[in-house]
Amino acid sequence: MLSLSDGTKKGLILGSTAVLPRNLRVKSRVSLLASLEVGIAARSDLLIIAHPKSGNTWLKAMLSRLYQVRFGFPERLLNKSDEYARLNPAVPRLAATNGYYSYEGAVGEELKRPNSALRDKAIVFLPRHPLDIAVSWFFQFTKRQSAHKQELINAFIEHPVDKYTVSMWEFVRNSDLGVEFLIDYLNGWRVALAGLERAITVRYEDLRTHTELQLARINTLLGEDFSAQEIAEAVAWGSVDNLRKMESEGKFRQGGMTLRNPDDPNSFKVRRAKIGGYRDYFNHDELEELDALVQARLDPALGYTTDHAGH
To answer: Using CA atoms, how far apart are residues 125 and 73, in angstroms rounded to an integer?
Structure first.
C-alpha cells in the first residue's frame, strides 16, 4: 500500500480544496487539516507546542542537524514531522503545533481529554516573551505567511487582519492576534501542561542563552544519546548567522524555511532572534503601555519580569 508523507497529505488537502468557494474551502480545510494534525501528533515521538516565532523552527533545525550528521541526511532537508523517519525508522517523528487556533486547535482539544494518549508523550513547551513574539509575528503575518494559512487564521478570529494595511502598533496592541491574545495563549498552555509527567518548558530566552544545555535536556527527554560534541556541532550549525546564510542562498526547499524575498530582511524566517528586540520598534509611551500590560496579565510562573531580559 502506498504510504504518503505528512507533507504530501497536506499538499493534497490544499490542492483538492483550492477551487471551492471561500466558506466551503475554509470549512473543508479546517476539518481535513485538523484530522491530519491530530494524526501527526499521535504518531510523533516529540510534540513541540509553541506559538509561531517562538523558536520551534530553530529547534527543529538543530534536532535535524543531529540526525543529518549521524545518518547522512541531506543538509537541505529538515525534519518537520516524518521526513527522516521515512528514511530511517530509528529517527523520532516530530510534531510542532500552536495547539490553539485554526485547525491546529484540534491538537489542544485532544490533549485536554483526560485519557488522551498525547498526554503521555514527550512534550516541549516553547514560550517566549509575548512582545517579542508579537513583533516577529507581525513581520511573519505581513511578509511571509502563506495565503492558505492566513485565510484560515483570519477565519478563526472575530476581526480579520489585513496584512496590507495593518500597522505594527495596531497589530501588536489591538488586533485579535496581538499581545493580549498572546498573553492568554501562554498562560493557558502553562497551566494545561503543568501536570504532565513528560512535559518540559524550554523558554526561547533560555534556549538562546544556554543552547547546548537546553538541547541536551530535550534529547534526554527523547531518550537519545548524542554526545556533547555532537550537540555542540548542531548548535553551531543552527546559529542565526548560518541559518540566515543558508536561507538567503535558497538552500531549504520546505515551506517553513524557503526564501520569500531576498531583498527584504524582514521577510526572512531567520530574522533577528534578539531577546527584548521588541523595544526597538516602539516609543517610550508605547513601551510603558505594553510593558504594564504584560506585567499585569502574564503568569509570573513563566519567568518574565519587568526587565524583559529573559531572566
So the answer is: 27
Structure-block grid coordinates of residue 154: 483570519
Residue 222 lies in a domain: yes
Any domain includes 175: yes
Q: Are 234 and 62 in contact (CB under 8 A)?
A: yes
How many percent of the chain have pLDDT more than 70? 89
- Number of domains present in the structure of the chain: 1
Alpha helices in 157-304 (DSSP H): 168-169, 179-193, 204-209, 211-222, 228-237, 240-248, 284-297
Number of Cβ within 10 Å of residue 308's Cβ equals 20
Condensed to tens digits (0 to 9), the pLDDT of residues 117-172 reads 999 999 999 999 999 999 999 998 998 788 899 999 999 999 999 999 999 999 99
Q: Which amino acid is at 235?
A: V
Domain around 264: 6-302
Ramachandran area for residue 259 (φ above 0: left; ψ -120 to 50: alpha; else beta) = beta
Q: Rounded to whole angstroms, what are the CA distances from 207 to 55, 90, 147, 194, 293?
A: 8, 26, 30, 20, 25
Q: Tell me how far apart the alpha carbons of residues 208 and 259 are, in angstroms, rounded to a whole number.
A: 23
**Domain membership flag for residue 307:** no
Residue 76: band (very low, low, confident or very high) from pLDDT cuts 50, 70, 90: confident
CATH code for the domain in which residue 84 is found: 3.40.50.300
Quick check: is 123 in a domain?
Answer: yes
